[in-house]
């Protein structure tokens, strides 16, 4: 396709779409004006109904909790698929040596780097746990906390190097967290069903507003999401990181038999 | 619209442009991480701290890391065979 033809097509598309875009853009509400009746209703009703102050968590884990369960399963499936794909081509045997591009110098880490990374990894881990635990009261929650916990594993790698990192971070533990979290979510949804109520309906005492224990069943769901996201992202990092290890000789040959 | 939000919007557009016009994949990853950080700050300025936390953790830590690992894996593989 020549440049001229592309420009002609672009011109035609602009001619057709520009009026529509302009029309929609001019009809948008003013910047920063909250107009969504749903959002206003949530802000007005939920603190009293659910005893929580973080509306995002309340919507995610209670009002549309079943949607979040679906997303949880999507994350589980996506990470499982990535793991199967990567492990299938690589095999299970764990050479615990980092791969190395010939010609690039390997510079040993300075003690200061190792120390800084250890401190930063610990603090990041604690921050993640705190963000996950306070999901009902302050911004954050299971997903954010879980991702922060998983990213503390990256700092651990940065400080300790591949071999020590592989010894510290165990795949089966992460897989257990991932699956266990998802299972806990399903159980939290199913127990009210068994009691003859709608799925995910609150069956625990709601607790006090602005307290660490507030929100009832939402706390369990939040914890489930935190565990599952920690496991999922940790496993994803681990599986990708395994791709950079030194190639061992008994690995499974790929489709062309190399 | 406050000056802070306007400035962050311009920064977001600029850092996004930087991701597109960077040609070296490794530098592009860092540009992407920078763009994620700017977006996180923008969400924070727009009073969406939950989204900001996710964006900063996923957009500046995990995604760039996965890209870097993929690039490293390609580099080791290509030389190894």
TrEMBL record, chain A:
Keywords: Cell membrane, Membrane, Signal, Transmembrane, Transmembrane helix
Pfam family, one: MnhB
Occurrences of domain Na+/H+ antiporter MnhB subunit-related protein (ranges): 116-233
Residues spanning the signal sequence: 1-22
Main localization of the protein described in the UniProt heading: membrane
Membrane topology note: Multi-pass membrane protein
Compartments reported by the entry: Cell membrane
Entry keyword Zinc-finger: no
Cellular component annotations (GO), alphabetically ordered: plasma membrane
Residues passing through the membrane, by range: 145-165, 172-195, 215-238
Family membership: Belongs to the CPA3 antiporters (TC 2.A.63) subunit B family.
Record-given protein name: Na+/H+ antiporter MnhB subunit-related protein domain-containing protein
Source organism: Methylobacterium frigidaeris
From TrEMBL, chain B:
Annotated MrpA C-terminal/MbhD domain residues: 11-73
Entry-linked InterPro entries: MrpA_C/MbhD (IPR025383), Nuo/plastoQ_OxRdtase_6_NuoJ (IPR042106)
Major location category of this protein: membrane
Coiled-coil annotated spans: none
The protein's name: MrpA C-terminal/MbhD domain-containing protein
Transmembrane segments: 6-22, 29-46, 52-75
Keywords: Cell membrane, Membrane, Transmembrane, Transmembrane helix
Topology in membrane: Multi-pass membrane protein
GO cellular component labels: plasma membrane
Intracellular or extracellular location(s): Cell membrane
Keyword Cell membrane among UniProt keywords: yes
